[in-house]
Amino acid sequence: MKNKRIFIADDHDIVRRGICPLLEVERGWEVCGEAANGRDTVAMVSKLKPDIVILDVTMPGFGGVEITRRIKRELPKTEVLIFTAPQSESLVRQFLLAGARGLVLKGDGPDDLIPAIKALSTGQPHLGPRVSRIVLDQYVRDGNQSEQVSAGGLSPRERQIVQLLTEGLSNKEVATTLGISAKTVEAHRGSVMKKLRFKSFSELVRYAVRNDLVPG
Length: 216
Prior knowledge:
Rossmann fold; Arc Repressor Mutant, subunit A; 6-stranded parallel sheet; elongated
């Protein structure tokens, strides 16, 4: 069976030196390369084409999210495992959206790093215990917000206007579609934003997706 080739990207030499022995004692794994900054990581991964990249978030050069995007764009079959210090919910979300399917915090150590690599090696995603809690907490908060927003109660006409606006139609196009004036559309839009206590259109879009007014 072909060995799983693993690339380590971390700007701390002590971290790379600590990870290598852990991986090399595992049968069928080999460390094919290392890098200490973002640019070298992208260039070397492109050349070596490893099966898995263990990636720190904060390195000189490209940030971790951008590195992940570039790797997945060029090498979609290469798995990215984020191995970093505790991060915010928003950054965890960015990495998942960029294509990373493994996230482990350094504080979890080898006890979770090895299982994460094993999971990715078989095509399975893996979130470390603390990352899982971050994702779960965010999911619960989003769900609660969705319930609170839905409880605000939009009229059928308001839901119709929200749907059309979040599908990309302008106020004028919505007015033409519904046979009403653009001023009426604007008034409904303002009423919806106030009723749902939203401050930006992006919040309205997220509401529309969560409530199945537009495809996610």
